[in-house]
Design a protein that fits this description.
Elements lengths: L3 E6 L3 H16 L3 E3 L7 E6 L4 H17 L4 E6 H5 L1 H5 L4 E5 L7 H4 L7 E3 L19 E5 L1 E2 L10 H5 L3 E2 L2 H13 L4 E5 L6 H5 L3 H9 L6 E4 L9 H10 L5 E3 L7 H7 L5 H14 L4 E8 L6 H13 L4 E6 L17 H26 L3 E10 L2 E5 L5 E5 L8 E10 L2 E6 L1
Parallel strand pairs: 1-2, 1-3, 3-4, 4-5, 5-6, 7-10, 10-11, 12-13, 13-14, 17-19
Antiparallel strand pairs: 8-9, 15-16, 15-18, 16-17, 18-19
Amino acid sequence: MQKTVSFHTLGCRLNMSESGSIAQKFVDRGYKIVGFEEPSDVTFLNTCTVTDGADSTCRNLIRKAYSKNPEGKVVVAGCYAQMEADKIKKMQGVDLILGTNEKYKVFDYLDEDEQVQVKIDKSTEFWGAATTEADSHTRAFLKIQDGCNYICSFCIIPHARGRSRTITVSEAIAQAQKLVADGFKEIVLTGVNIGEYESTSGERLVDLVKGVVEVEGLERLRLSSVEPNTITEELLLVLRKSGKYQDHFHIPLQSGSDEILKSMRRKYDVAFYRKTIELVKSYFPDASIGADVIVGYPGETDEQFIQTYNLLKELPITHFHVFPYSKRQKTTAAKMDNHIQGGLKKERVKILINLGEEKLNEFSKNMLGREAEVLFEREKDGYFHGYTQNYLKVKVKAESDLKNTIHKVRLSHQEGMKIRGEIV
């Protein structure tokens, strides 16, 4: 009988691109991909360790994978595996633990019969990755960079993924050509810190972007998270001139307090961040902008939290990604005094989430009555769902299959966190 494999991917778009490449390797070896809820010969968990919550979710998924499939092999891979292999090894049902580099070598170890194998490699090799047809996504995630040379006081990712390393410009263009040939209309360039591309590779990110947008058949391009200190006017000009870049940016903030930003070892202050947002909006007036924010950083006072709240309220940030500070081993912040109580962190998270919902609703309301290009991704309950250029969720009623097609839609009214529209 044909062997089966199921996947569950946690965390960032970078993880999604990597899972896509690994899924294709299983397909190439004759495996059939099934849903995570179904029994399978292999369950592959691509994990995240950015917060305590991510760690807890990983452990719950390991238990779930074993309970649904006690005879199958459970592979735990990625950042959580890299950092907490000893804890994972003690959990029932785990067969193979692969770090952030070793997960690409899963077939070197899968057929071995050791009780629990642990493979954690500290190499600096760059492993390319991209969404594949095996992954069933509509938007394609193309990995152009991995690792990070920044040592922010709160962040575990440099320990989990290592130093910054990159794909070459020519390899990125070739990967983009393959993705378009496979039917993808939109590509998202991903990495841990893609603004580090030039300082790591010696090649320019703007040249990579120019090469990718010239790929025949590509209709839409996005960048994943870009650090504010790495956004240049030249990059924005190239993106605007391309005619393919979508009106959407993700620019991490973390805090609206200069004192906290300095303690976090961020490479900008509030004034610089504000100027960056203004610059982006000058090139892309209709852009939605997402931002990561950490609340409850050690020693964060009420006044410093209010500074963050007021800055987020003032700036045209539309998509809030709010996290309570998590103590991560091996980080500077974990050793600091004045850690904030969990209850207060939850309260501050809730306040910012509510503000984010208000701002997103207001941004969406201002788009009503206008027309927007929507890439449709899936069908649910008789509606097709997709995203506008500026990353607003849209649903339309349609008789025909709209998946992986782009249509002009008139945005009519809001329904919860989505916009209802009609195809023009």
